[in-house]
Design brief:
Elements lengths: L12 E4 L7 H8 L4 E4 L5 H11 L3 E5 L8 H14 L3 E6 L1 H14 L3 E5 L10 E6 L2 E6 L7 E4 L9 H19 L6 H21 L6 H20 L4 H13 L3 H16 L4 H10 L8 H12 L15 H10 L10 H13 L5
Parallel strand pairs: 1-8, 2-3, 2-4, 4-5, 5-8
Antiparallel strand pairs: 6-7
Helix pairs in contact: 5-6, 5-7, 5-9, 6-7, 6-10, 6-11, 8-9, 9-11, 9-13, 12-13
The structure holds nicotinamide-adenine-dinucleotide.
Nicotinamide-adenine-dinucleotide binds next to helix 4, strand 6 and helix 9.
């Protein structure tokens, strides 16, 4: 049966393909953008320089100070560079942190964003922004921060370290899994989400090998595009709430937390979302919905990255507080949430037990 639904398609042009970066100058011209402020992290200065060279006189300035979680001081600093450059668009080359800085600047200036993603985080497809001030991250939705143009060039993913390929790819799978049982899921986002899980899961073990497999990394990027699209289109639930709590309150790394928690969140929600989980399971090559959590866990093991919160800086003594924080404010989830069951979920994630 088709449940009633609402679907808001988000605007934005997407160019995908190996070598797509070469089209950037022409694409900027097509949109009438003549002066770009090129944004990167300090680690990706070189990639920023390369892109600036590619667009020639259209590069009005460069700012290479993007940092994780978009600290407000960085936004203030970048805003000065923006004023000096007299740019008419923001060109972000990097992962979620760099796209996040572009979004914070767009929120202040209303300038359009052009994003060139170099991880699988998916922020480039969402109207969600976040800024950290005094240790607290404020987030919101505003269509002004949704990039007008996204250039996905899989060649840019070749420099991403293998372990980051794995965790960033699992971060993208998590967007797809939660989109399938989202309260605001609709037939279009569910198609994209299932295909996202399938594309990523099939290629991730090869993509995350030390020896570069360009095709596998490209396939994961295609899945990550789908993941970002559904993240931007529908509401998330338990998994994202837990990861936000763990990342924000215990300073754990973003993509690693998503990687470790998703099998457990999926297993927890499976009894309450059998149809969504059947699609996740099918995309992972399994027949039964209850196999989805275990299959996601096996995928992480196959990529060789960590499966235990204990190994990424979480302290056992903090698990009670994490469960308390994650259940303090009520929010929608397919299965009702209580402190004790979330504490058990966190325990499984802490010790890296395979969901049954
Ligand atoms: P990131 O952007 O912080 O990148 C991690 C590191 O890898 C950085 O040092 C970066 O310079 C480097 N790097 C990125 N691409 C590289 C490449 N191809 N080669 C070599 N090094 C590279 O990490 P991320 O996981 O992409 O983003 C995480 C952040 O994005 C979090 O703060 C998260 O909250 C945010 N996010 C936001 C949304 C949204 O919709 N607003 C969605 C997803 C993630």
């Amino acid at each position: 049966m088709i449940e009633p639904f609402a679907y808001d398609a988000l605007p934005g042009r997407v160019i995908f393909g190996a070598g797509a970066l070469e089209k950037l100058a022409k694409e900027l011209d097509g949109l009438g953008f003549g002066r770009a402020l090129v944004l990167t992290t300090p680690q990706q200065t070189e990639q920023g320089e390369r892109v600036a060279a590619l667009i020639g006189a259209r590069a009005a300035g460069r700012y290479a100070g993007a940092r994780m979680h978009v600290p407000v001081e960085v936004v203030d600093d970048a805003e000065r560079a923006l004023a000096e450059s007299k740019a008419d668009c923001l060109l972000a080359i990097g992962g979620g942190s760099t796209t996040g800085l572009a979004k914070a600047l767009a929120l202040r200036s209303s300038l359009p964003i052009v994003a060139v993603p170099t991880t699988y985080a998916g922020s480039e497809m969402t109207p969600i922004w976040g800024i950290t001030e005094g240790g607290a991250k404020t987030t919101g939705r505003d269509v002004r921060v949704l990039p007008r143009l996204v250039i996905y060039d899989p060649d840019l993913l070749r420099t991403l370290p293998a372990d980051v390929v794995a965790t960033s790819g699992m971060n993208a799978i998590a967007h797809c899994v939660e989109a399938l049982y989202s309260q605001t899921a609709n037939p279009v986002t569910s198609l994209m989400a299932e295909e996202g899980v399938r594309a990523i899961a099939e290629a991730l073990p090869r993509a995350a090998q030390a020896e570069i497999d360009g095709d596998a990394r490209a396939q994961v990027l295609y899945g990550a595009w789908l993941g970002g699209t559904v993240l931007g289109a529908v509401g998330m639930a338990l998994h994202h709430k837990l990861c936000h709590t763990l990342g924000g309150s215990f300073d754990l790394p973003h993509a690693e937390v998503h990687t470790i928690v998703i099998p457990h969140a999926a297993a927890f929600n499976a009894p309450a979302a059998p149809e969504a989980m059947a699609r996740v399971a099918r995309a992972l090559g399994k027949a039964k919905p209850e196999e989805a959590g275990g299959a996601l866990f096996d995928l992480i093991v196959a990529t060789g990255v960590k499966t235990r919160l204990a190994d990424i800086g979480m302290k056992e003594a903090d698990l009670d507080r994490a469960a308390e924080l994650a259940t303090r404010n009520p929010y929608w989830n397919p299965r009702p949430i209580d402190r004790e069951s979330i504490r058990r979920l966190l325990d499984d994630a802490y010790f890296g037990r395979r969901p049954r």
